[in-house]
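Supplementary Text 2. Reproducibility record for the structural model of the 448-residue chain.

All settings were left at their defaults, and a single model was retained for analysis rather than an ensemble. We include the record here because the model underlies the residue-level annotations in Supplementary Table 4.
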Amino acid sequence: MTQVPAEGLISHSLAPDRRLLGRRGWNLARDTGAAGLEFPPHLIGEQHHTVIDLGSVKRLVMMVTPEGGGAFRDEAWEAVSTIRAILRQQSVPMEVTMQTVFVRDRADVPVLELLFKAYYGERMPLTLFVVQPPCEGRGLAIEAWAVSTDTAKVEYHNEHLVTVNYGDMRWVYASGGSLHREGRTAYEQSLEAFQNLQQSLKTVGASFEDVVRVWLYQGCITEEVDGVERYRELNRARTDFFANIPFDHRRIPMAKNGHAIYPASTGIGTHCHGLITACMALQTNRQDVALLPLENPLQVSAFDYPKEYSAKSPKFARAMAVRAGEFVTTWISGTASIVNSETVFKGDAVGQTEQTLTNIEKLIAPENFARLGWEDAGATLDDLAKIHVYVKHAEDFEKVRAVCERRLGRLPAIYAVADVCRPDLLVEIEGVAFSRIHQPQHFPGGDL
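Retained model, structure tokens:
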């Protein structure tokens, strides 16, 4: 083992890009607790992470892309060892709860499964393997979320289910599909995946009406089968499944602003015919917790799209804001260059990226929160903890990244090559923002 002093361990490559909420200043020796730690020699890959201080608990999001090259096994070890180093530099013990692994080649997944099993053991986070090649040409990239375990209790129930309890709230992370779910029509595949999600939630006494965020990774999303796009069939299955979910009877209060109250969601393509699904649900009896589904003033709500886009429209909110005490977490759905219901800047990746970021900016703005019922909440692009950018054509990557970095600054991000849900869309971006309410003494009970 090689002894590494704290000053050497916490290099530029391991410093957080952002520290949201909590304490703004950062004292190296006090906050890292890294002095005296021993680390084996390893290459620290390109990574970006944000530390979020929510008072009673700390959250950590890591976006790791290996940069050392070599065989896939080398890249995989580099990524995992980077995650390990980031976790160990934190001032409190932390565990990974959910990770999404974006891979270039499906055949490499067994290597990752063995490595994760060796590293995490029985504390295996909910793990999704998505065939979306990282834009930098690497074999993989990992988005991983962790939580401080000095105040939170993490339970790993099975490979499809993890729960996190803190502050009288229980978060449920569930998966309902896998990389190998093939051999069915797009409708059958989608309906079964939603049913599997529901069954997974029931294992821990949760239900789909508790869900606030959904991820759908659909292979060959714009491919037509018998004249119908696979994504349109996914939307048909989601509509049929959601018809039996009493979202309007959620146990957590929700602002009643005349909009539908579906979960936030991302529906994006992958380089295989499978369907990978996951969701995040929240259960609590706290009186200061509430939900706000956000719709964009620049866009027609997805569930109100005309039938030319899908026989049964996509059922999701543009974002879902979760209010807990003085903190608001806003889960932003996959967002693209759409104004009203039409694609704009067709054929122009730079223009589409600009419009997509503007759509996100307007969506999470305080003015939009006020328009929808919460006058004391809202966020800016500076409150984003991370983004995931899906780029349809690899040759557009550098142009897209330049726009994101100019408008967002240094922000944890992963860029992956993926087909977007419309043939003329070149870019899609999702993210999450953390902010405080503006008037801590006020709770909009009259608006719920």
